[in-house]
Amino acid sequence: MASSTRPVDFMNYFSAYPEQIKAQVEALINSGKLARYFEKKYPIAHQFKSEKALYDFATGLKQSYLKNAPKLNSVKYEKQKDLVLNALGTHTFKRHAHGKKLKAQHHIAIANQLKYAPEEILKTLVVHELAHFKEKEHNKSFYNLCCHMQPDYFQGELDLRLFMVLCDLNENFYDAK
């Protein structure tokens, strides 16, 4: 079940957090109770396993909160190593000339590890990538938009980082359910 080796740099996921949060995270991980935390807080994984279901989920969020944003062309699961800078998700924006018109396409790629994540964790990442439709930089407006789409966004982002540690420790019990 639990792997005996832990990546040395697992706390890199939490580098921007205050020392108090880092200490709590480290205590949770070192206690061996991280999987139990997820089992209790998020007892089941999301149901969006296919790329069509993932696309529908992301499009539904976009329609609810970003009605005037451009069309979402694709949303798919990708191997993490294929994503830019080992991010958990990417939003790609491409412009190309089509005759005299300039066409834009928006694509979102989600790391395969999130195929078996709790729905709130997946939602956090999709909300993050959708926010890039309006705000390209991670600034105050960007995070305000994230919180508009998911009021508990910051807790979701922390749990997303904890989930990645869980995956690094090979303790992802969601894929067995």
Write structural notes for this entry.
This protein has 177 residues and is an alpha+beta fold. It is 42% helix and 15% strand. It contains six helices and three strands, in the order H-H-H-E-E-E-H-H-H. The chain has a three-stranded mixed sheet with strand order 1-3-2. Helix 4 crosses helix 5 (140-149) and helix 4 crosses helix 6 (153-168). The longest helix is centred in the last third of the chain and has 16 residues, at 153-168. The chain is globular, with a radius of gyration of 17 Å. Mean pLDDT is 83; it is low at 81-88.
Q: What coarse outline follows from CA principal-axis ratios?
A: globular
**What is the structural class?**
alpha+beta
- Could you tell me how far the N terminus lies from the C terminus, measured between alpha carbons in angstroms? 14 Å
Mean pLDDT: 83
Helix content: 40-55%
Number of strands: 3
* Helix count from the secondary structure assignment: 6
The whole-angstrom Rg is 17 Å
The percentage of residues in β strands lies in 5-15%
N to C succession of SSEs: HHHEEEHHH
Note poorly predicted spans. Answer: 81-88
A few lines on this structure:
42% of the residues lie in helices and 15% in strands. By secondary structure, it is α+β, with helices and mostly antiparallel strands.
